[in-house]
Design a protein that fits this description.
The complex is a heterodimer of chains A (94) and B (161).
Chain A lengths: L11 E5 L1 H7 L3 E4 L8 H9 L3 H6 L7 E4 L2 E3 L10 E5 L6
Parallel strand pairs in A: 1-5
Antiparallel strand pairs in A: 1-2, 3-4, 3-5
Chain B lengths: L2 E6 L5 H9 L7 E8 L3 E2 L2 E2 L2 E6 L3 H16 L2 E9 L1 E3 L4 E9 L2 H18 L2 E7 L2 E4 L4 H8 L6 H6 L1
Parallel strand pairs in B: 1-6
Antiparallel strand pairs in B: 2-8, 3-4, 5-7, 5-9, 6-8, 9-10
The chains are: A alpha+beta (94), B alpha+beta (161).
């Protein structure tokens, strides 16, 4: 896999909720991770490297939950083809 | 699969909602309603209010998936889930779940199932406001345990796979 090849990376909408949103400092953004970033776990690791706010938000990726296109997914889920990815803490509704 | 799923800022008009759900049907023999209410304390400390954040779009979709699952597991005739978001003060309602069936067992079980899944799978997050500060409520492992007891796959979804 060649990273940076034209057409390999694609813009993805990312949304953050609750304290993940507060730590990142924004509710959503468009990101363009390199082609080597294939899973949710790899995306969290890549995001954690994007500055101190991100490092703080993703310092303990095990506690962060993710959704792809509004469906819960595990950290090993592949992000290829995702339109919208969300990161958030364990849910506390009801 | 008659179901009402709604997110709203306003307090829930419980009696009117249940009336709308069951209406003039004569096949319903049991309606179970559960109302979640904002307490004035969290972990023993007084609170001023709760603010509920949610993931618009996914919250409705996730609730709908669990209502569908409830219909697959029990002979339901109607179901309703209304969840509030925004700022809620102690004494106000947060969530209403209602399930209707011919007999009480299905209605009780389905209401409990829906609530257990709402707690752990529906994308809502509570923030507590007290004495001028705010803090995010931490997920409770007791809620995960409550949801897990339903996770033995029902025969219907086994057959579908």
């Amino acid at each position: 896999m060649t990273s940076g090849t034209a057409g390999q990376s694609k813009k993805i909408k990312v949304r953050y909720f609750a304290w993940v949103r507060e730590r990142v400092g924004k509710p959503e953004e468009e990101i363009e991770p390199p082609a080597g970033v294939a899973t949710i776990a790899e995306l969290m690791a890549w995001l954690a490297d994007q500055g101190e706010h991100y490092a703080y938000a993703f310092e303990n990726p095990k506690v962060i939950r993710a959704a792809i296109d509004r469906n819960h997914v595990r950290s090993e889920a592949r992000i290829e083809g995702a339109g919208e990815i969300a990161f958030f803490p364990p849910m506390t509704g009801g | 699969m008659p179901a009402i799923i709604r997110l709203q800022r306003e307090p829930i008009a419980m009696a009117a909602e249940v009336e709308k759900l069951v209406g003039a049907r004569k096949d319903v023999g049991a309606v179970v309603t559960f109302t979640g209410i904002c307490r004035a304390d969290e972990n023993g400390a007084p609170i001023a209010a709760l603010t509920l954040e949610h993931y618009p779009g996914m919250a409705e979709a996730e609730i709908a998936r669990h209502v569908e699952e409830a219909y697959a597991r029990w002979p339901l005739l109607a179901a309703l889930v209304i969840h509030r978001y925004g700022r809620i003060v102690p004494g106000e309602d947060i969530v209403l779940v209602a399930t209707a069936s011919s007999h009480r067992q299905a209605a009780f079980a389905a209401a409990e199932f829906l609530m257990d899944y709402l707690k752990t799978r529906a994308p809502f997050w509570k923030q507590v406001e007290s004495a001028g500060t705010t803090a995010w409520v931490e997920a409770k492992s007791a809620d995960d345990t409550a949801a897990e007891r339903w996770s033995a796959p029902p025969p219907q979804s086994d057959a579908a796979k």
